[in-house]
Each structure stands twice: as C-alpha cells, then as structure tokens.
Amino acid sequence: MYFEYRKSRVRVQVARNWRRRFTLQQAACILTLATCGWVSTGAQAAPPRVLVEGYTLERVAAEPDVVTPIAIGFTSNGDLLVIESHTHERPDEYKGPGSDRIRRYKDTDGDGKFDTWSTFAEGFRFAMNLQVRKDNAVIVVTRRDVFLLRDTDNDGTADERTTLVHLESEVDYPHNALGGFAFDPEGGFYLGLGENFGGEYRLVGSDGEAFADSGGTGMVFHFAADGSKLTRVAQGFWNPFGLCVVGQHTLFAVDNDPDASPPCRLIHVVPTGDYGHRFEYGRAGVHPLQAWDGELPGTLPMICGTGEAPCAVVPHEGFLWVTSWGDHRLERYKLAPKGMSFDAQREVVVQGDADFRPTGCAVAPDGSLYFADWVSRSYPVHGQGRIWKLSTAENVTPSTDIAAVTTVESAGNAPNDAVNDDPFARQRTVARLDEAKAVDAMQDEKLMLLGLQAARWNGWDGSDMMLRKALASTDPDVRLYAVRWIADYHLTELRNDIAKLLEGEIPNERYYLCILAAIHWLDSDRQPPPKEVVDGLLARELRHGKRSDDIKALALRLLSPDHKQLTLEVLDGYLAGSHAGLRTEGVRTLALSKHPERFDRLAQVAGNETADAELRADAVAGLAAASKDFAPLLERLAASDQPAVAKEASRVQRFAGLVEVLEEPKPEATDIDTWLVLTEGLGDVNAGRRLFFSSVGPRCGTCHAIEGRGGDYGPDLTRYATSHDRRQALASILEPSRDIAPRYVPWVLETMDGKTHVGLRLPLGGDGGTEPYIDDEGNRFDLSSDDVDYREPSKNSIMPAGLEKTMSIDDFADLLAFLLSTKAN
After folding, report:
1. Residue range 705-720, pLDDT digits in tens
2. Taking the model in full, what pTM does it have?
3. Are residues 226 and 324 in the same domain?
4. Are 314 and 280 members of one domain?
C-alpha cells in the first residue's frame, strides 16, 4: 500500500512540474495569442492521462492552428476536418474570425503525419456537428440548418452548399437545437433536436415536409439522403447531441444535460420511444411529470449514465466511446444484451484535469481514435483548442464485435410483446399500431396503455370521453399516463377529473406527486415551476381541509423534514392526534429534522410506556444524534419489556459507544455464502428501516432515499427488491467497491496545496468554476476547479467499507429485511 501511495505521489509531482514548466518559445507563443484576444496567459494544464493499458495518447494539434474545436471527421483519403467555433457566446473583445469555419488538416508529404492546415469552408453560425459521407460530401449541422458541402473541383475548398434541413424558431441559444447527426446504412440520416428552451419551432425538410412543436421535449428525426421524407423517430430527450448507428439499424444517443438530475444518458433509441424529459416542466429535471430513467408509464430507461456533458458517441473496437466535456474524460462502454435493449459497463480510458474538455470524436482510416478538446470550461469562445490521437497497441485485441451484440434488438417473440415486462418489447408493439389500431387497443383494459401511447404518437389529440375512460381505469399506470397526457397538452377542461383521483386509490408516492403536479400545472400559466414546487404542493395538501388523514400522512412522509411549515407546534399536533399514520410520520419527521428542540419531544414519546412499541422505537432511533445527552433514558429503555424498544435502545447504545460491545464471530466480507446462512430467516423490517435512516451505524439514509425519505446523493432504493436478491444485497453492503455504478464513481482529487480529497460529485447544475462533492461521511465540500491539480476516478465506492466490523449479524439481517421489503410501486 505504501508503494502504491508513493507511486501516486510521484505521478502527481511529475504532472505538477510539467504543468508549471515553460520554454521561452512557448511563452512567446502564448503572449502573442493573448494579444490577439484568443487565450489567457494562465499556466498550462497537465496532460491527460491514459488509464487503460495498451493505449497511447498523442497531441497532434493545438492553438493557434486550431481553436475551440467542436466536431471532427475524416475524408476517405485521411484528411482531418475540424469545426472551429468562433460564434459560440462570442465575447465583444474576441479577435478571431467572424464566423465558424471548417479547418482541413492534411498530410502533404505522405509521411503519415499531418503538416498543413487550410480552410475548407466558412461562414457558419453556431456550428455543432460534422460528418463526412462515403462520397466525401460533408454534412455540417448548425443550430438552425443542416448543410451539404461539396468540393466539386478538388481544390480542397468547398464550392457548393445545399440546405437539407432548416429549423424555424425565435430561440437562438447555440447548442440546444439541431446537433446530433448519424448516417444510416441506406444513405439517409438521423438528426437530433434539443429542448430549444421549450420554445415553438418548425423543422422543415428539403421537400417542404415539416414538423412543429413546443414544450421542450427533445427529438430524434430521420430523413432521406437529400433531406426529404422527414420522420419523427423518438422523443423525450434533453439534448441528443451525439448519435451513432451500429450494425444495420441500432441507434444510440448521448443525451445531455439535466441540471439537477445527473447522470447524462447513454440511450438506445427505438421508434416511437419516449425518454421522459420535457423542458417545459423546468430545467432542473426533478418535476414529477418528468422521467429520466423510465420512471413513468410509457417512458423508456437509459442504458446507463455517462460522464457530464457528453458530446459524441462513436462505435470503435467493440465499444461505444463517449467524450465527456464536463468530467474531462474519454469513456468507453461495453454493451451486453438486456432483454430487447442493453446494459453497459463503463471504463474511463483518458482522464484529464479541468482544462481538458473533449468534444467531437471520430475514427481515423488507420483505426486510431481522434478527439477534439475545447480546453477551457469557458462557454464563450476563447481561442484555445487541441486535437488528440488515441492509438491502440498491436497486442491489444478488440472486444466483441459491437454490431454482433446489437442483434439482440431483432430477437424476441413478437406476439408476446404486448404483455412483456420488457419496456422495449412493449414499445415495439406501440410502433406497430397505427391510429385506428391504437383506438381499438384502447378498448381493451389490458392493452389500453399501449393504445394510449400509440394514439398520442400518431397525432390523435385525444377526446374527453376516452381520456376520462383512461382516468377511470383499474390500472394505475393507465391513469397516470392519461394524467401526463392531459398535463402535457394543458387540457384544463379535465383538471377536475384529475383532482378526483385524490379521492381514490393512491398506489405509490410517484402517482400521488404526479397528480399534484398535474393539478398545479393545469392551474398555472405554463411557466416552469421553481425547484421547490414539490414541497410546496405537499405543504398545501397538509393544509387541505378535505384531504383524508391517510393522504396527509403520505404528504407528511414525502415533505422535506425541515420544511418551514413543519413547526414544532404543527408536529406536536400530529403527535397528539388520533391518527396512527400521522403520529408515526410525525415522529419520523422529527427524527430526521434539524429542529434543535426535537430531542425533548422524541424523548417524551420514547419514554411513554402506554404508546405503541414501534412508535416508541422510532423515537428512540431519533435520539441517536444526541445519545450521550440521553444516556440514562437509553439505559432504562434497553431494559424495556417491549422487545422493539429494548432492541432499538441497545442498538443506539452500541453504535454510540455507550456500552461495551461483546466480540461476535463473523465471516470475512467476501464469504457471502456464510453470511447468507447466518442471516437466513432473521430480520425485522421495521428495525431495518430504523437502522437505514439512523444517524449512527451504516447511515444509509444520508445518501439513499426510500419512499420519499433520505438523501439524494446515491441511488433511490425504493424499488430495490424488484431487481436485487439477498445475495446481491449482501454483496453490495459487504463489498461496496466490487461493482460501482458509473453514476456513483467517486473522485480522488489533489489540490494545489497538496491535500487529497475523495468525494462523489453532487448532482448540481452549472460549471461556474466550483465543484461540489460529498465525502464518505455524508458531508459536503466544494473545490475550485482551478485548485484541482490532479484527479482520477476512485476504485473505491463512497459507501463505507468494513461494515462487518461494526455491524452485528442481527443488524445485517434487519437491514436486508428492510431492503428486500421494497417493491415496484
């Protein structure tokens, strides 16, 4: 371990020295560029690091030859084409060219190295993407247009420009409109359209065929090679900025960038698919009527999360390669079949520091991978830029053919798709239903959801009668889909029909929140709601005179425990009331809150021998944060004749160090089989819930939420048991670093003062130069991007290791019982 630590320290020091060393020639060059208003005179960053054996990285170009590169591609003879952005949030003092241009990098002497730059085309504004056809015609995607460029006289400069697609919109932000582009094997192409700030737009093909929309649901379209035959493929994206086709028909996208709901997404795009996002509900991405991973009926999940701000997705050597602008890295994803779609494992291949911002990516004719580097976190163009080449050593064998993996999409038994649990199989049925068949399907309760999806996709604007029928369905998914449809189209005449759902079955918290959000939306002027909208709606429910106590108990459970409405006086009222659910949620709210006087209330409940035993145990768990102040009470309660109370008091004493802990023989953390035997048939769900949310012990609730309570730093575990068994649950607790989901990989960061930090990047939007993290104790810390001297993904999970040393076998059994009591809802 000491040797590994020393190697890390040496590597950091070498990087520092490289970063701070200049030659006179380099200094003169930088001074010249700064005088032109193109670059700052700050210190150079350390070079990005290759983290996977078998690859070598070479910088092949940099400013002033190429600046702010945003997309790249290769001609058939190996020339490199690069879009230089000069219009993206262009500063007033910027001295670069007046328009975006395509630079051509050429090997003129045949020695295998680029040596000559020239300009292939210019005169573009907000250029976003570039692709080269097999006939060497060049496609350029700008915010508003798709152009076809040709060099008809072979002089190295485009002399013919044809508009294939045009976007009409008053919105003019650079990179949230047209962007993603990929050719299909038949010569047509796919085109991605971002959220466009929810503004109205009209997309027009070369034949005049048009599609109009608003509301900010990003789309993917398909066109014939000449820009005709516009066809909508899928919706529900934020910004499908990168697209690629693998094999004959399998389409992938990288989708960025929900401000408060990372991760960005690697998506398997299928016809008629809805991926859940709608900008109109707010850019934070947390509105109940938005889905990001298939959380709502009729929406599809992502394959997996990607690094922040992915710009390109490229198939290469059996992987999908993704550039992450925001996390300063190049990633690759190994696909594996998962039903009618895919799962993926991520690996970071190249990792840089704050001044490494990969954008466009392309495979060269020699099989190497080139990618562009924006360099700075500055959105405005700044005159810096690099091009990198990643080469594979001859002894590295490519992974499984990615095209072969994607044949899974054509598998399956079509007649069973309609009743298949696989959402991608069900979506295939939706894609087969025209409007007439969709309306027919809506008459069958079992097929109504699929019929609703197909009818909406095919442009049927609904009718009061049919949507009211859907709202009366016995299937909550059908009701919820109808609620979302009504809200999306702002069908205010059905507002009271949605409100009546609050008087019926409330199967889960998501359903409840969606109804509240839909009512709020229909009552509003369709303005994006504030981030606090959910808590505001819940607080209003608690004040509603006609809501049942059961509904109010649910609202109290979902409301943030420190909401301003939850005063001690209000909570005292719930504790003194006759409704058991409100009493329980009142105690649990107090236990999780930060009210300075909460402990006295909790102590009163815990010491009340006439109160319900589980309620008393909940109060005892809440005293854990002040256990030393209540040591005598805990000692008395540990001897209670109510087992739940005694168990909880003893557990708090043990974790707080108030009693001597007897040694308990336990197997090694890796011996999962023995742990399974030891915990078999044991465990108390309620005790496990208290342990999960306790402020002492494993402290799971600091990062994870279940049914509305807990933190949002880690995965929500509300439906954990639907996809995990006891073995998987035990392994995740005992060996948390064995399999870390891509979204939750922590970072090891060394700052310029030599200090090392380890933390999980928090899901907060923006890139203003400050990076927020949470450590393994659940404490937040912020670092300046400029102060981070070295960073790399950690091999260790943010979840604490070694819990088998502090938790008893009984603790593990209780925690497992609680986790496995969760179910889809």
Report:
1. 888 788 878 888 887 8
2. 0.84
3. no
4. no
